[in-house]
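Take a careful look at the protein record below. Let me know whether the structure tokens fit the sequence:
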Amino acid sequence: MSDWTDTLPDAARAYLEGRRLDEVECIISDLPGIARGKAVPASKFGRMEYFHLPDSIFYQTITGDWGDAAGAEGFIERDMMLYPDMSTASAAPWTADWTLQVIHDAFDRKGAPIPFSPRNVLKRVVALYEAQGWRPVIAPEMEFYLVARNLDPAKKIEPMMGRSGRPAAARQAYSMSAVDEFGPVIDDIYDFAEAQGFEIDGITQEGGAGQLEINLRHGDPVKLADEVFFFKRLIREAALRHDCFATFMAKPIEDEPGSAMHIHHSVLDIETGQNIFSGPQGGETDAFFNFLGGMQKHLPSSIAVLAPYVNSYRRYVRDHAAPINLSWGRDNRTTGLRVPLSTPESRRIENRLAGMDCNPYLGIAASLACGYLGLMNEEWPDKQFKGDAYEREEDIPRVLGQALDLFETAKEMHDVLGEEFARVYGIVKRTEYEEFLQVISPWEREHLLMNV
């Protein structure tokens, strides 16, 4: 192994022990969370300080189009300089040869961070916390479906066949037998995660047919966003080995629960290491309530980031395991904001609104931005809600267009996430929404063609 590989993280060095590294995948997340970049021979990577990609990758819609974004003000498709963050070097154990993946950070020619690169957006928010003497801590939960291979977009998505030869069953939350049905896929997920140095806190069967949840241990927001970014690819590759698909769509199957990326938050005082949500006697502090108040006030204007596609809004269904409002409560999963049972040291606030289809960097950044504004503005939440929050009125956007209207006018949110990011994100998402509105659905043809 060459000298640069001696500085690799332990898991990557263990993966390569006694083997010859063939290739390095130099990657970066675009706005949807797709890995973009290039693969280079290991010998070339060792000599390469950075590489170039055009900034147009951040103007692409989920369909691969640019639409109005390509005509946006100042768009001349400049080259960015992408520098590797070697702490992210990780195995790609599903490949035929010995390959590493390395996440890169994007800068312009003057060395300034590209403001609409998702990892840079999250780093910006974390830096705002650190400037106040705070260290944000998060823990993501990833829900997803294992489904039968689907090659025809006109065909409904169906659950995968389990180990028993029967389709995965619904309404089997926390069933160990249901988890066993996906045993071979889960085994590969564990093996891939171990090769990449990721620690899984647990895998459970969720309420949907073929729906699983993976919990990750709490930690640094950027590191955990990196892991979710890596995990999405890892899980897809494990599924493909077993003739099924893994999907992170917010609502892939009608009448089944949607898939969320619940985000748990706490904030530590950098100097003391203490959780600022808990006082000396273990009680809830003003900071705890201010963080909650900020989430209640600013989440509506950031829903377009947490729920980035038209499909995302199909998850917010009353009595269907997803929130419909911003009520908060202790140990209450019907609320949009939940305070789990915990010791004072681990007191945290769970945002249950983010969908698994969101970009993990942007979803975590937007969620932390809401809490940050609450702390800075000393905002206060409504009174705790006790009972079934589904009995209350909805108070979050129900369609992408409405969410974008709120996002595009949210100046305080733009100040935290970055004005240039907000401008580009709004352009790209508005283009996607207008593309969707051009599509006539089967429902419209069935019920409107001959009846209106």
Notes: The first strand starts at residue 23 and ends at 29. The mean pLDDT is 91.
